[in-house]
Amino acid sequence: MNKFSKLKSIPSYLSLQNIDTDMIIPKQFLKTIKRTGLGKSLFYEMRYDENGKLLEDFILNKEPYKNSKILIAGKNFGCGSSREHAPWALSDFGIKCVISSSFADIFYNNCFKNGILPIKINEQIILELSEYSKRKEEIGIDLEKQEISFGNKISKFELDSFKKKCLIEGLDDIDLSMKKINQIDNFERVLTSEKPWILRNE
Amino acid sequence: MPKTLYDKIWENHLVHEQEDGTSLIYVDRHLVHEVTSPQAFEGLRLQKRKVRRPELTLAVPDHNVPTTDRSKGINDKESKIQVDTLRQNCKEFGVELFDVNDKRQGIVHIIGPEQGFTQPGTVIVCGDSHTATHGAFGSLAFGIGTSEVEHVLATQTLIQKKSKNLRINVNGKLPIGVTAKDVILKIIGTIGTAGGTGYVIEFAGEVIKNLTMEERMTVCNMTIEAGARAGLIAPDEKTFEYLKGKAMSPKGDYWDKAVIFWRSLYSDQECKFDKEINIEGEKIEPLVTWGTSPQDVSPVTGIVPDPNNEKNEDRKMAMKRSLEYMGLKANTKISEIKIDKIFIGSCTNGRIEDLRLAASLLKGKKIARNVSAMVVPGSGLVKAQAEKEGLHKIFVEAGFEWREPGCSMCLGMNPDQLKPKERCASTSNRNFEGRQGRGGRTHLVSPGMAIAAAINGHLSDVREIQ
After folding, report:
1. Which of B143, B132, B2, B68 is nearest to B416 (CA)?
2. Contact B151/A174 with Cβ under 8 angstroms?
3. Percent of chain A topping pLDDT 90
4. Which of A19, A30, B27, B273 could form a disulfide with B165 if both were Cys (CB 3.0 to 4.6 A apart)?
5. Residue B307 contacts by C-beta under 8 Å, 6 or more apart in sequence?
6. What is the least distance, in Å, from the CA of A9 to any CA of chain B?
7. Candidates B24, B64, B433; nearest CB to A23
8. Which residue(s) pair with B375 in the sheet?
9. Which residue has the higher pLDDT, A100 or B72?
10. How far apart are CA B441 and CA B443, in angstroms?
11. Considering only CB atoms, which chain A residues are within 8 Å of B419?
12. pLDDT > 70 in chain A, percent
């Protein structure tokens, strides 16, 4: 996984609440057996009309937002389906950081597996940051310091220390867990004697 | 120290815990379908990893499968590739598969319980948010992303942090015509789609105790629509009765041992929940959704709400957008909303009891001229049982289409989709924009309410056709 450290970009702002993963990447694009190539279909029904023509009005279709690395959105972003295609599509489009006042649980976890930093921050700051999007001014993210910088202001954000470490070092979860293989073996030994029906070895 | 049911299951599955609370938990049961697994198997292949415990994983194609005649295979090229890929992956990694033409094939969350693969006190995961369904058995069941699917396949564990405890008590009794679907819609309407974020919900109270296992599955199924990590219900005699004799349930001595353990699965009397919510069963009415979020609920006797009465600006904007998408005007009577399509099925309401209830209301009647309607049984076994009871005849004679099992129009990955502006009374779980087809308009309802809409051609009160 790519390592995450610092980021600077003019953010895109979608004020809509409850943006669900069906909106982020609709069902017809879930038929892929790959992780790549979904960026062009991100927010498909908002970005294209019924005939597949680009809707010039939609923020991600406009300059300079086409190149945004940061997306600011209304609360409860990423609700609904567990599809990891949602962070895959965001990442493939170039989004590396999503800022909202709240996220749906599964989407939030999926981001970290794909080198995307989801930042939870209060609605007042969201409003301030949205002005930077409207004025087409850059904001900055420093993951190490857990800071968002905008103008001459700095806002701290909270983050789980383990998730932060994984993002900064680009760690692979499976590698980490494989190192605990002895503990998993031990757990299964106990399971075999205490709850033998679980392992289906009857 | 007194513990909640969730605390007990969590502690039972801790393989390792770091100082910051990040934990490695054991996964007892893993369900896999064709949409969220190909990249996970590919990841294993690239890293030359094996599936650690193939016998704890069960796979089934459900999202992409056609619900019409399948004897000639799948027409859609991409769908076919995905289903073929699942077949190859299962073969290569030694995972059991219920293939498209297996009579046990069906929606992943219907077949788990049906086979006894789902068991109390277990941790069950699947790359699908409606995994919450299995919580009805007192298991900790939740949806995961594809990277986590790969993690489970490789290690039979998951990295997790513990959620908080929320208990929702549904007290008293339900009025006639009010079902499990209305209970969960009421809960989502009350706490909102982010109301459960950060929590595992335990559903309790007299109403929940009195629900059948299948009704409990309907409630737990939509826990994810309230934003919670999982929803669960303490197992009881009904749970054990349901599981007894199922193909994958424990047998002989193991059964007796399992039941002894299962009886220890409840929240201790003195335990403390981080949050507790009470809902009065008597006050729940048959509900429908009017908007594009499952929290947008209204009693069938009510009206479409007016965004101008909403004080929060963002919420007002969201409501306006919903009403525009849904083609509805504020203050319209719910019962005046005309319907084009009826969909009965999905992991929420595609089980035999749902079909029995729907058929009992439909018997001897016809669907309205302006609607087309379909029933998609949740699994091959549900379909076979319904046909044995003659339910399919009632549906077909009334004008419904009787289909093959799968996810179907709940998400429209197969050809079962709404056309733009088509309006559907659907027993599924999500009314998001475009969910059932681009521009399609979804009203979430119970199976009984779907029948009422089918007969009258507009959203209607199920109590008036009973």
Report:
1. B68
2. yes
3. 97
4. B273
5. B316, B317, B319, B320, B323, B330
6. 25
7. B433
8. B344, B402
9. A100
10. 7
11. none
12. 99
Quote the minimal CA–CA distance from A97 to chain B in Å.
18
Nearest C-alpha neighbor of B224 from the set A81, A157, A70, A28: A81
- Chain B residue with the nearest C-alpha to that of A20: B432
Which residues does chain B have within 8 Å of residue A188's beta carbon, measured at their own beta carbons? 26, 156
B63 to chain A, minimum CA–CA distance in Å?
10
Q: How many CB atoms lie within 10 A of CB B139?
A: 29
Report the number of secondary-structure helices (H) and strands (E) in chain A.
8, 8
**In this predicted model, what pLDDT tens digit does every residue of B423-440 receive, in sequence order?**
999 999 999 999 999 999
Min Cα–Cα distance to chain B from A121, Å: 15
Task: Measure CB to CB from residue A198 to each of B85, B122, B438 and give the nearest one.
Answer: B122
**Mean pLDDT to the nearest integer, A136-145:** 98
- Over the range B102-127, which residues count as b (16 or more CB within 10 Å of their CB) and which as e? eebbbbbbbbbbbbbbbbbbbbbbbb
Separation in Å, CA of B388 to nearest CA in chain A? 31
For residue range A34-88, list pLDDT tens digits in order. 999 999 999 999 999 999 999 999 999 999 999 999 999 999 999 999 999 999 9
Contacts of B194 in chain A (CB under 8 A): 18, 75-76, 79, 102, 104
Domains of chain A, residue spans = 6-194
Q: Do A105 and B197 touch (CB under 8 A)?
A: yes
pLDDT at B335: 98
Which residue, among B155, B159, B134, B166, has the nearest Cα to B144 in the 3D structure?
Answer: B159
Tokens at B124, concatenated: 């069950």
ipTM: 0.96
Residue A2 burial (C-beta neighbours within 10 Å; 0-12, 13-18, 19+): exposed
Look at residue A200 in the predicted model and tell me its pLDDT. Answer: 80
* Helix H or strand E segment including B146: helix B146-155
- A106 to chain B: nearest residue by CA? B144
Residue A201's pLDDT band (boundaries 50, 70, 90)? low
Q: Among 3.50.7.10, 3.20.19.10, 3.10.50.40, 3.30.465.10, what is the CATH number of A6-194?
A: 3.20.19.10
Question: End-to-end CA distance of chain B, in Å?
Answer: 49
Query: Cβ separation of A177 and B157 shorter than 8 Å?
Result: yes
**In sequence order, what E strands does B230-354 have?**
230-232, 275-280, 287-289, 297-299, 341-344
Span A27-32, average pLDDT: 96
- Do B146 and B36 contact (CB within 8 A), yes or no? yes
Judged by CB atoms closer than 8 Å, whether chains meet at A30 and B147 is answered as no
Contact assessment for residue B3 and residue B267, using Cβ atoms and an 8 Å cutoff: yes
For tokens 């954000």, the residue is A157
Yes or no, beta carbons of A200 and B128 under 8 Å apart: no
The 10s digit of each residue's pLDDT in B97-149 is 999 999 999 999 999 999 999 999 999 999 999 999 999 999 999 999 999 99
Rounded Cα–Cα distance for residues B64 and B411 (Å): 10
* Of A23, A75, A183, Cβ closest to residue B15: A183
For chain B, which ranges sit under pLDDT 70? none
Phi, psi of B113 (to 5 degrees): -65, -40
Query: d(Cα A25, Cα A57) in Å, to the nearest integer?
Result: 19
Contact B335, B398 (CB under 8 A): no
Q: Please judge whether A184 and B258 are an interchain contact, meaning their C-beta atoms are less than 8 angstroms apart.
A: no
By C-alpha distance, which of B11, B40, B4 is closest to B26? B11
Test B79 with A187 for CB contact under 8 angstroms.
no
Kind of pairing, strands B275-280 and A139-142? unpaired
